[in-house]
Amino acid sequence: MAMAAGPSSYLRAEEALATFRNAMRRLAGHVHVVTTCLNGERGGLTATAVCSLTAQPPRILACINLSGRSYRMIAESRVMAVNVLGTEHEALARRFATASGADPFDGGERWTQAATGAPLLELAQASFDCTVDQMLMTGTHAIVIGEIRHISHRDTGTPLLYVNGEFRGAGPLDLPFAASASEQASR
């Protein structure tokens, strides 16, 4: 196994960046499309840097590049939806990951409008409709914290992952949601 230079070694900036990127390629991430809407215009991006933050109150975070059009739309509208993708959505993930000029929403998928106005993918594994609670700037990205207003989900599917520069499936899931505390108490 090749070992990168330790923290006490002095790497040139280019080497350090290449080493960082190479190491991060090994970190598998679930693929999401983060969407928003501003003055009737829809926007979105593909993201893997998304995770739950707190359960009470329910919050989720997404790391979004400051130079992107979608970041500016989210910052101004203060709404976003996080759509969790399955393997059947690979083409969708690719469309939202490129800046081709074509509308990434025009791929045949069915979209609905959330209460916040953000687009929700109808057959997402899960969707989180959020209002933006905070935005923390760090380097080239913003950590956008969304307060979840509504959640929808499916109980089956195969998660879409991104690892080593490729989309991959994680294996099928058949995960009924766990009963809430009140549901468990009534059994």
Provide a descriptive summary of the structure in words:
The protein is built from 4 helices and 14 strands. It is α+β, with helices and mostly antiparallel strands and 187 residues long. The protein has one domain (29-170): Pnp Oxidase, Chain A. The strands form 4 sheets. It has a 7-stranded antiparallel β-sheet with strand order 3-2-6-9-10-5-4. It has a 3-stranded antiparallel β-sheet with strand order 1-12-13, with no helix packed on it. Strand 12 (160-163) and strand 13 (166-169) form a beta hairpin. Mean pLDDT is 88; it is low at 180-187.
Output the keywords.
187 residues, alpha+beta, Pnp Oxidase, Chain A, seven-stranded antiparallel beta sheet, 14 strands, 18% helix, disordered C terminus
CATH class: Mainly Beta
The CATH architecture category equals: Roll
Strand content: 35-45%
Low-confidence stretches: 180-187
Task: Give the termini distance in whole angstroms.
Answer: 53 Å
Order of helices and strands: HEEEEEHEHEEEEEEEEH
Number of structural units classed as domains = 1
Give the helix level as a range of percent.
Answer: 10-25%
Number of strands: 14
